[in-house]
Amino acid sequence: MGPSGRKQSGKPGKPSREEPGARAHNFEAAEREDSRASDEDVPEGKSPVIEKHGKKRPAGIVEDMGGEVQNILQRFGADINKAILAKKKRLEMYAKASVKTSNQKIEYLWKTQKEQRQKLYQDYYQQFLTLFQQWDTDIQKTQEQEEKLINIFRQQQKIFQQSRIVQSQRLKTIRQLYERFLKSIEELEKNHDNLLTGAQDELKKEMAMLQKKIMMETQQQEMAIVRKSLHSVLF
């Protein structure tokens, strides 16, 4: 960072971002200008203060060097803070995108499951309705036959037995259909649970990969910043 009196180069209104090489160049230029300024400040005919053995006192140079090093460290800290803020924003963007994708997948699964349930209920409802209608029709026919054949015992007994057999068959069919319905519901619920579990596992894997990727990128950028800063300090 040069002296406070130097003019900044570049277009007005746009802050210039110094690269590490430019910082080293500015540091050397600042040293040269400080050296010239110190030479000019010495009146003619007077030599600078000389220690024993003919060497200049290094107090001013050390102070200037300390100020430059402090400025470099401050810029180094600012670069690291900028990198951390950029990574934080990128992490938030990645997390929001991942959560949005996961929500869309879960909503799609819920919608598909709801449609499948409705279709299954509708199919079995129609079958149950048909069977109950047939059962009601059979019962009505049985009652009519019983009323017609009340005076004929044998015929009535025969028809009654046939009616009981038919009803038993209907009940057996209903029981079998109900068991198939329960089995289908159980299989459907298991399938839905497996789909949800798979979606959750996939989300966990994606989040783990995302975190690992962001950590690697952050480490790489931080190492690059450290190398550039050390290069600017050393060279």
UniProtKB/TrEMBL annotation:
Coiled-coil annotated residue ranges, if any: 171-220
Example GO BP: sperm DNA condensation
Name of this chain's protein: Synaptonemal complex protein 3
The keyword Coiled coil is assigned to this record: yes
Family the UniProt entry places it in: Belongs to the XLR/SYCP3 family.
Keywords: Coiled coil
A single Gene Ontology CC term: synaptonemal complex
InterPro entries registered for this protein in UniProt: XLR/SYCP3, XLR/SYCP3/FAM9_dom
Bias type Basic and acidic residues, positions: 15-39
Residue segments, region Disordered: 1-59
Pfam families cross-referenced by the UniProt entry: Cor1 (PF04803)
Superkingdom to which the source organism belongs: Eukaryota
XLR/SYCP3/FAM9 domain span: 82-213
